[in-house]
TrEMBL record:
It comes from the Eukaryota. This is Plasminogen receptor with a C-terminal lysine. Keywords: Membrane, Transmembrane, Transmembrane helix. GO terms for biological process: positive regulation of plasminogen activation. PANTHER family: PLASMINOGEN RECEPTOR (KT). The chain crosses the membrane at residues 53-73, 79-95. Pfam families: DUF2368 (PF10166). GO terms for cellular component: plasma membrane.
Length: 147
């Protein structure tokens, strides 16, 4: 009688462990999907913001270019056009970020760093461990009592 009962308990425990493993795996997959969705949405918001900014800055740049060109012609001084140079670099950067290939180049460089220069990513004093956190918590805690 005890053998049958323990056999049933063992099978039940094994089934429960398999269920828990499957459940935790499913939960991890959902978390990974959610994190990826959040990352994609944040990236989409950043690109959309850049494109919106480009509309306003493009208008400003166009008006400034026309105004500075008119001023340079009126005063017969080409030095008046000098502010167009840095403004054109800003405009080109924003355009490349919003509509160009900048994000692909950044992604490629990030992948290169991860593959060939991973030592640049190491934290000072190595990764943070539970023991390090406990040591810091104990040092800061006013209520810690040594056992």
């Amino acid at each position: 009688m005890g053998f049958v009962f323990s056999k049933q308990m063992g099978e039940s425990l094994k089934a429960q462990q398999e269920f828990m493993l499957m459940n935790s795996r499913l939960q991890l997959e959902r978390q990974l999907l959610m994190q990826n969705q959040m990352r994609e949405r944040q990236a989409a918001m950043q690109i959309a913001w850049t494109r919106e900014f480009l509309k306003y800055f493009g208008t400003f740049f166009g008006l400034a270019a026309v105004g500075l060109t008119a001023g340079a012609i009126k005063k017969k001084n080409p030095g008046v056009l000098l502010p167009i140079v840095p403004l054109s670099f800003i405009f080109a950067y924003q355009y490349d970020m919003g509509y160009g290939t900048m994000l692909q180049r950044i992604k490629g460089e990030a992948e290169n760093i991860l593959e060939t220069q991973s030592t640049l990513l190491e934290l000072p004093k190595g990764p943070l461990t539970y023991e390090d956190l406990e040591k810091m918590r104990r040092a800061q805690s006013k209520f810690y009592i040594e056992k």
